[in-house]
Fold this protein.
Amino acid sequence: MVSSNIAVTHADSGVVTADVLEAVQISPHFVRVTIGGERLREWRHVGFDQWFRLAVPTSGDTRFDNLAGTFDMAGYLKYLMLPRSTRPVIRNYTVREFRPELLEMDIDFVVHGDDGVAGPWAAGLPIGQEVALIDQGCGFRRVEADTTLLIGDESALPAVGGILRDLPRDASGHALIEVADLGDRQEVTAPEGMSVHWIVRRPDVAVGATALEHLRELPPFSGSVNAFAAGESKLATGARRHLVNERSVPKANVAFCGYWRAH
Ligand SMILES: Cc1cc2nc3c(=O)[nH]c(=O)nc-3n(C[C@H](O)[C@H](O)[C@H](O)COP(=O)(O)OP(=O)(O)OC[C@H]3O[C@@H](n4cnc5c(N)ncnc54)[C@H](O)[C@@H]3O)c2cc1C
């Protein structure tokens, strides 16, 4: 995580392995990878923006059995000591949908070109490969508020979509989701009082700038505010700065997390 004030909760489930059952390009910049198998019975499902450390295989020799069950500082140090030839690459992802009755989970990957590991791995439609997950809990804080505000770019679409799905049905406010292409919009199950704004950026504009512009133009919020901002680092920190400095939202009411950093 780049910059963040979200708390991590470590589940007892430890390292949970699963197999890629399906991988489909669902829109111009998204591949949905469905993982499953009996071992997902161990998964602690909490909904909302639940996220996890995803261990991605880099070759047929990759091992998951020597990873630490909690990815805290000690777990990370243990990971760094593993031989490079057999250790997986670790990245952060969100549960897009979990189907306990089928023991299946969908993960939506932004495909962002050839750089990196996880995006290109998903783009290769890795059906049949094994992955491992280490649960990290939710960043969104479930507190009562008059206005709920969610803001993110496409990397946070799974998080914002999950929060909208699991919010109490009487929640009201705004969800701002910035995408590169109108075709990347997804069906979301939002409470009636939540206005969902799909914001498409122009190719020559920095990721997150258009969503921030939209945020600044929202009318004054009524009552208390509970906010969640995630995505490219400047979007997450910029949203927090605007809410705290210009809308007088208490710092403690803004959960923010830089999901990645643009170069
Ligand atoms: C809590 C949390 C939950 C997340 N959930 C999701 C999720 O559900 N789906 C998802 O797609 N991402 C999600 N992310 C973001 C994801 O972890 C990063 O995008 C990660 O960098 C991808 O790894 P990589 O190996 O593809 O690229 P890296 O090796 O990390 O980076 C390689 C290059 O790609 C660029 N890059 C990385 N991500 C993006 C992007 N999204 N768009 C454009 N350029 C990019 C980097 O700037 C860098 O130059 C989440 C992050 C966090 C912290």
